[in-house]
Amino acid sequence: MPTVSFTTSGALGKSALRQANERLVLNSIRRSPGISRAEIARTTGFSRTSVTFVVNRLIRERLVVEEKVETGAQAGRPPTALHLAARSRMAIGVEVARTKSRVVLVDLSGEVVRQRDVPWQSDPNGFLGDLQLAICDVASGYKVRQILGVGISLPGTIDKSAGRVLGAEGLGWFNLEVGAILRRRLPWPLFFENDANLAALAEQWYLPAGREPLRYFVYVQTQGGLGTGVVVDGRILHGVASAGTEFGHVMLYPDGRPCRCGNRGCWEQYASDAALVRNYVELGGPDGGVDSLLQDSLRIVKLARAGDEIALQALRGTAASLALGFVNLVAVFNPQAIIMGEPFSSAWDLVEDVVHNELKRRVPAYSLSNLRLLPSREGADATLRGAAALVLAGFFTSFDHTKDDSLPNGVSIEAHG
Q1: Domain map (residue ranges) of the chain
Q2: CATH superfamily entry for domain 211-376
Q3: What is the 3-state secondary structure (H, E, C) of 355-414?
Q4: What is the per-residue DSSP string for 89-100?
Q5: What class does CATH assign to 89-201+382-397?
Q6: pLDDT of residue 124
Q7: Which of 126, 141, 158, 166 is most buried (most C-beta within 10 Å)?
Q8: 407 contacts 13 by C-beta, under 8 angstroms
Q9: Which of 180, 217, 214, 212 is nearest to 197 (CA)?
Q10: In this predicted model, what pLDDT tens digit does every residue of 143-173 receive, in sequence order?
Q11: CATH architecture of 14-87
């Protein structure tokens, strides 16, 4: 939701009101390309005079372009369609991952303009130095002010305000000041978030035009471990220290497999991409030898589709363990939907019956009546796209990235000037 500033009397300042109106109108245009001024007035509740005032200012600022729509009618003023001037501002998204990290430059519509890959290296300073160079590379040719900021996805438990990794076992990073290191080298605002939370954000942000976002759902990411992004009433749930919703480390079996978190029997050990690959090898499948669990797990999906019985058995067995965790998610959150990332989003038709049957065995029917199980629309790019969306969402909805006061859900404000 928008972030606002208040005067000492508690009233919204004129500048904040103006920015609020701009962002609400701009976001209407983003969600409905080609929308008219009259449609904006109807959907926002603003007067037509206010909409015209705001739109004209956005056009002067080169954030919006307007084009006439040919209707064939002779009388009256021809209607106009509003679109974002997509290349007027850009955002950078960064996905930090063990095998290969990626950096993208996107425009206001979320279209990828440039992408760079950053190979992993065990020395954090060396790796972050290469990451910084890749960020500067994708931004080359653009003025500093055109880049809205850099959204950075980090796995594990993080302090997102500082960009400090408290614990990312898969990377071998503990108490690493990623934010402090990168801020010394980059001129743009940096925004940090957990990878699963950003995958959930991507599902919210990159919606087809006209579709309403889900407000209660859980995104289950099974790449490089198992993470969950939980959205409650349209907002990502973080916990008091931004370390909550780590359902990958909810224990399924007290005496189960040892987990890299130090516990045993964690859900991650039975339902992640690593678990799928391990199950495949233990059932007699050959070790692919690819240095990427995502590549290996997607290879197993392809083999299963081609009729490989071992691959299909491994896939369906891992999906049964995935469903066990879903039982807990349903009991805790009563979500509208559970969304699955890769590799299960690519294999959903092969495992859907397994997951549904396990849930029916263990969850009351009334708890399943409104639940949807959905493969991710964004697939393997969900976290990367979410990192860019973190910056875009701030631009389209907030007034000042440094403040955290928010308007209540459903509240809009209007003022001239």
Answers
A1: 14-87, 89-201+382-397, 211-376
A2: ATPase, nucleotide binding domain (3.30.420.40)
A3: HHHHHHHHCCHHHHCCCEEEECCCHHHHHHHHHHHHHHHHHHHCCCCCCCCECCCCCCCC
A4: SEEEEEE--SSE
A5: alpha beta
A6: 94
A7: 158
A8: no
A9: 217
A10: 999 999 999 999 988 998 899 999 888 888 9
A11: Orthogonal Bundle (1.10)
Token pair 């509740």 is at which residue? 45
What amino acid occupies position 261? Answer: C
Strands 235-236 and 227-232 come out as antiparallel
pTM of structure: 0.86
Give dist(CA 152, CA 163) in Å, integer: 9
**Could you tell me which of 128, 133, 321, 160 has the C-alpha nearest to residue 241?**
160
Q: Are 379 and 342 in contact (CB under 8 A)?
A: yes
Burial call 87-101: b when 16+ CB within 10 Å, e when fewer: eebbbbbbbbbbeeb
Say how many CA atoms lie within 13 Å of 400 toward its Cβ: 12
Per-residue pLDDT tens over the stretch 78-134: 678 999 999 999 999 999 998 789 999 999 999 999 999 999 999 999 999 999 999
3-state secondary structure of 257: coil
Task: Report the run of H or E that residue 337 belongs to, with start and end.
Answer: strand 337-340
| Residue 145 and residue 63 in contact, taking contact as beta carbons nearer than 8 Å | no
Amino acid type, 91: A
